[in-house]
Amino acid sequence: METRSSTGSRLRPRSRRAAGSVAALALASSLLAACGGDGGKPELVWYINPDSGGQDAVAEKCSTDDYTISTQVLPQDAGQQRIQLARRLAAKDPSIDLMSIDPPFTAEFADAGFLAEVPQDAKTQLEEQGTFKGALDAATWNDQLVVFPFWSNTQVLWYRKSFVDKAGIDMSQPVTWDQIIDAASENDGKVAVQANKYEGYVVWINALVEGAGGTILENPEEGVDADITLGDEAGKQAAGIIEKLATSEAAPADLSVSNEGTAGSTFGSDQGSFLVNWTYIFKNYDETAPDVAEDIGYTRYPQTVEGEESRPPYGGIGIGVSAYSDEQELALEAAQCLVSPESQGINADLTGNMPASTQGYDYPKLKEQYPADLLELFQTSVDAAAPRTVTPYWSDVSGSIQNIWHPPRSVNDDTPGRSTTFIEDVLKGGDLL
């Protein structure tokens, strides 16, 4: 089973992870800086999140006679990626030219002045290639596009066709969380989710809240004075679903430590029934468990409230250009190539991380690998997705939620209200994570 980040990217094996510590990255960067100062062709350094080779392939494709794009791999954990980049950008390190940024950290980097302005011709390009609204929303801060949407991941509901046949569920119609939990409980199945104490758990909570018509916070432009709305009715409905699953027969034994990889293992087991996970799952079992691969069905993310359209999770990567790059103009030019439809298609083919634009889905190899209805489901799900609130304080908000909502078996009707108070205290300095 492959390892995944909380935004769904396929991670490189640890043995291939380059520059895994700050010291190693600093050494590599100093060497690159030295090489770049000899008057030769400029080398643009792109700090990437770990994957299975998609970003390397795109970097090679977009290198030109005027510059070469090289890659440096960030840690596997998204929080560690943020810390490493933020520390170096705060020091105005000129050796970072391009960087792959998780959506939750986009506003933080932009608000701090770390990102170069996205030029108008790039914005026009992104619009013309049909960049999804969810991708643009996640890449925007203070009404300004601040990163280049590269790939856009979303979660769908994966199910075992043999299980739903046994349970007698009509998957051609929208289903609710209550329905799949009940079906699994009554038929010796397990519902696989991400509920470890990490960002992936907050992704699930956010989707549940948004699916009930609510939001975790409002008025993010107010910073620490934003309105925390997690304690409203939508938050209570989300808590009710988590409590129901955690205390049911459908809960996997490892629920409190489950992530993308362990959830995939549960789904592939004899008790596999339903799974919410990212787009890569469709190809995940091809080589290791072909019988499971043939048994996979898919449909829209479950509804929080029956009759109300779900708001699937949004994940992905935006490419930012450092405000402190010595080659900023070349880096901005390179970024436009890196997010072109062909580049997005190449990356999707190699990693399973789907394009951020409709034209990216026209890449021929994707149409060969995936059924047409699944590619359509991915696109409609991204359009309907609910990105986590774009705020410079998302790390504090997310950490506060994890603190109060974990483990899942502790969640009850009081949890949303308690977490609202805790988030407010943390943001205003009255409490610590």
TrEMBL record:
A GO biological-process term: maltose transport
Whether Ribosomal protein counts among this entry's keywords is: no
Stored Pfam families? SBP_bac_1
Secretion signal: which residues? Answer: 1-33
Any one Gene Ontology cellular component term annotated for this protein: ATP-binding cassette (ABC) transporter complex, substrate-binding subunit-containing
The answer, when asked if Nucleus is one of the entry's keywords, is: no
Q: Keywords in UniProt for this one?
A: Signal, Transport
User: Which parts of the chain are coiled coil?
Assistant: none
Q: Which GO MF term does the entry hold, naming one?
A: maltose binding
Which top-level group of life is the source organism from?
A: Bacteria
Q: Which family does it belong to?
A: Belongs to the bacterial solute-binding protein 1 family.
The protein here is known as Extracellular solute-binding protein
What organism does this protein naturally occur in? Nocardioides glacieisoli
- List the taxonomic lineage: Bacteria, Bacillati, Actinomycetota, Actinomycetes, Propionibacteriales
